[in-house]
Specification:
Oligomer: single chain
Distance between the termini: 33 Å
Strand content: 15-25%
Largest sheet: 8 strands, antiparallel
Strand order of the largest sheet: 13-10-12-11-15-16-14-17
Order of helices and strands: HHEEEEHEHHEEHEEEHEEHEHHEEEHEH
Length: about 375
């Protein structure tokens, strides 16, 4: 059976998929498409353009094998729904994707599986457990020609197309419509504890790097306003031993849980204040730096995560100054939230990387119909 025959069989049994294929095949250079699920990440990336391509109806968990630690879900599946099913079996998405609640389709809801992969964003545990792409085993993609392509599989040993599946993480939908994703999941750790320390930013970074070289079950960290928080997760004995070794102040669960959830979903004090500042004309930057980098000489409110490798900055500084400081420290800066995106959202690409991005776009979406310009202008 050839690829077109396979697509006909797939769409004949799935009217939602058939509608998407028809809309993609009917699009052209003058009518680009903007892929949309719950629309919770509309603020992220360059401005969306084109007619909406709704994928929220392409929802549901296709298969789940708890003993194999693998789940397959369609792109429009709400993250809340997927995580509830995993929780029943004591499992989770360990990279803690932010859910960004919205009021899409007339009712409050969080993000979707497809949006999670397309944006490639992870939460507080990112430095300890890896990011979204590290858990993608396989994916089905509807490309710019209206063809349904499958990559990877549903088990770790199946590596056919593995890297292509991971390529979709953070692609912002410019390569095609993610229709279905297979993900590795993990058991929920049996124990956790949160510790707090009164430290300035430089000392917090020094401690984090020192602890990072030790066999400690540090799962997440956050520093803000002279206060460093550590989340320990793992075996009960390991967590208890780390508490004794590290000291600090034990944060009670009723305080710790909202803290980490706020950091994950950007609903805590820092991000709430950052959003208000953005509405007032400031910018929220996300800086990816070596964890050993010293505090940057940039004015603004700062939040450190991921052992110091992710640093949030709220302020009103020229983009060139922020990006130059990040580059000098060995990293890069992303304009995460701003009313003015004219400086460009993502760090400019070196010519060889820019060429690769454009070649990939041409291969998957030769007519340029998907999320045009959402990642970089002209892509």
């Amino acid at each position: 059976m050839n690829a077109d025959s396979t697509l006909q069989v797939e769409t004949a049994a799935d009217p939602v998929l058939a509608r998407l294929v028809d809309q993609v095949r009917g699009a052209d250079a003058t009518t680009p498409l903007c892929i949309r699920g719950a629309n919770t990440k509309h603020f992220y990336g360059e401005a969306a353009t084109g007619d909406p391509l709704e994928v929220s109806a392409l929802a549901g968990i296709s298969s789940y094998e708890p003993t194999e630690l693998v789940v397959t879900a369609r792109a429009g599946t709400p993250l809340a729904e997927l995580e509830a099913v995993l929780a029943e079996k004591g499992q989770c998405l360990p990279f803690e994707p932010p859910r960004f609640a919205s009021a899409a389709h007339g009712a409050p809801r969080g993000g979707t599986v497809g949006g999670m992969v397309a944006a490639g964003l992870a939460g507080p545990a990112r430095a300890a457990v890896g990011g979204v792409r590290d858990y993608v085993l396989g994916a089905t993609l509807l490309n710019g020609r209206g063809e349904l392509l499958s990559f990877g599989g549903q088990v770790m040993k199946n590596v056919a197309g593995y890297d292509v599946s991971r390529l979709l993480a953070g692609s912002m939908g410019i390569l095609g419509v993610i229709c279905e994703v297979s993900l590795k999941v993990l058991p929920v750790p049996p124990a956790q504890a949160t510790l707090a320390f009164a430290l300035d930013q430089a000392e917090a970074l020094r401690r984090l790097n020192d602890w990072g070289g030790q066999p400690l079950p540090i799962n997440a960290s956050a520093w803000r306003d002279g206060r460093l928080y550590l989340r320990l997760r793992g075996a009960r004995a390991a967590v208890a031993d780390a508490q004794r070794r590290l000291g600090g102040e034990l944060v009670q669960p009723e305080v710790a849980e909202p803290l980490w959830l706020g950091l994950r979903d950007h609903t805590g004090t820092f991000h709430t204040r950052a959003l208000a500042a953005v509405e007032g004309g400031q910018q929220l930057w996300r800086l990816s730096l070596p964890s050993t980098a010293a505090p940057l000489p940039l004015a603004g409110e700062v939040l450190l995560e991921h052992g110091g490798a992710q640093r949030w900055l709220v302020g009103h500084l020229p983009a060139a100054e922020v990006r130059a400081a990040a580059a000098q420290a060995g990293g890069h800066a992303t304009l995460f939230r701003s009313l003015d995106k004219s400086p460009g959202v993502f760090a400019p690409l070196a010519p060889p990387l820019d060429r690769l991005h454009r070649q990939l776009k041409q291969a998957f979406d030769p007519r340029g119909v998907f999320n045009r310009g959402r990642l970089y202008p002209g892509l």
